[in-house]
Specification:
Helix content: 10-25%
Distance between the termini: 57 Å
Family: Belongs to the archaeal Rpo3/eukaryotic RPB3 RNA polymerase subunit family.
Radius of gyration: 27 Å
Region (Disordered): 1-25
CATH topology of the domain at 1-22 and 93-223: RNA Polymerase Alpha Subunit, Chain A, domain 2
Organism: Neobodo designis
Strand order of the largest sheet: 1-2-6-13-8-10
CATH architecture of the domain at 1-22 and 93-223: Beta Complex
Number of helices: 6
Structural class: alpha+beta
GO biological process, one term: DNA-templated transcription
Keywords: DNA-directed RNA polymerase, Transcription
CATH class of the domain at 1-22 and 93-223: Mainly Beta
Order of helices and strands: EEHEEEHEHEEEEHEEEEHEEEEEH
Shape: flat
Largest sheet: 6 strands, antiparallel
Length: 348
């Protein structure tokens, strides 16, 4: 955490600290300018909600944090890699980026506390907000409901012998304060923290933390805290085939050679049953230096894609949909720019 983006100012006789969870985003706010569009998610079926045991905390849907895997056919590895990069860097989310600390008596420094706040995933409809630019620097006195979400945290430990010597401050202490103009979000309970048990700091007797945190819309391109996934990868599908019939002892040998049970014996002959379990160990290609006609190769036109969502979006499918819509918008913009260019004829 850099001290260059930390400023102190006096307000009504108190010294407050203004800091950011990711300093470079304050200096390069232009990175947050929107480059795509967010799709509608109407029509998706409702999911069951899991309420928290903490009073006043909005419930978080059970499938917000999930691993989603799907197959893509008739695609190439560059296309799959493009989708992976768009998901990591171009799908917008909300994350805490500005923090106004009124009081912090704990051992966690202001900058480290702000950084921890920024890494708490915020469940909110990013499409309902606008990106910030350098000209839209948030004002703590009158924040814009079109740009920010406000969270308040105020935890004080009494200076009494009966108080516990150490008090943990969890993310559940962050309370969303709807701004004027955000009544619809409050009514729909559309804003909450994904995790309520993230440890932010520890306080002793007589210590207090009081702050205001503001979440803004951003992209993973500017900082990883805006990434909607913790992991995103793809793998080309594996093809396993037999070039000749295997029966009798040969079939038994190839079945026993495979450690993941890809093969099975049916009607006295070896068959490929579960090619997706192949780990490319190639133990079946040559058994006891005998070529049994087993071919193992990657299918470069079929890809298995997997993402692990962080919980900012209601459903992992929304992340894929937003990424594809963003890429389609990029392609349309490129087509328009090419059409507007005057390309000289080299033969002229």
């Amino acid at each position: 955490m850099s001290h260059r983006n930390k400023a102190t100012f006096r307000d009504a006789g108190a010294v407050d600290t203004q800091t950011a969870s990711s300093p470079h985003t304050m200096a390069t706010g232009e990175q947050l300018v929107q480059r795509g569009v967010a799709p509608s998610v109407a029509g998706l079926k409702k999911r069951h909600a899991v309420p928290h045991d903490i009073c006043g905390v909005a419930p978080v849907e059970a499938d917000r944090i999930a691993t989603l895997s799907f197959d893509m056919e008739n695609v190439t590895a560059p296309f799959a890699n493009m989708l992976r990069r768009v998901i990591l860097t171009e799908v917008p989310t909300m994350a805490i980026d500005r923090v106004l600390i009124h009081e912090n008596d704990g051992v966690v420094l202001d900058e480290l506390l702000s950084h921890r706040l920024g890494l708490c995933p915020v469940a909110a409809p990013a499409e309902a907000f606008e990106f910030l630019t350098m000209a839209d620097t948030p004002d703590f006195a009158s924040p814009s409901p079109r740009h920010v979400l406000r969270f308040d945290l105020d935890v004080a430990v009494p200076n009494e012998p009966s108080a516990p010597p150490v008090t943990n401050v969890f993310s559940s202490s962050l309370q969303w304060v709807p701004l004027p103009g955000q009544e619809a979000l409050a009514e729909a309970k559309a804003v909450s923290l994904v995790h309520q048990d993230i440890l932010l700091a520890k306080l002793g007797r007589g210590q207090r933390i009081k702050l205001q945190a503001y979440a803004i819309k951003g992209l993973g391109l500017a900082h990883a805290k805006w990434a909607p996934v913790s992991a995103c990868w793809y793998d080309m599908k594996t093809e396993v085939s037999l070039t000749k019939p295997l029966t009798g002892a040969a079939a038994q040998r190839v079945v026993e050679a495979c450690p993941t049970n890809v093969f099975a014996i049916e009607d006295g002959a070896a068959r490929v049953r579960k090619a997706e379990k192949c780990t490319l160990c190639r133990e079946c290609v040559k058994v006891e230096n005998e070529d049994l006609g087993v071919v193992v190769q990657k299918d470069k036109t079929r890809v298995k894609f997997t993402i692990e969502s962080m919980g900012q979006y209601a459903h992992p499918e929304d992340i894929i949909r937003t990424a594809l819509t963003t890429f389609a918008a990029r392609c349309r913009n490129l087509k328009q720019l090419v059409g507007e260019c005057d390309i000289a004829d080299p033969k002229a």
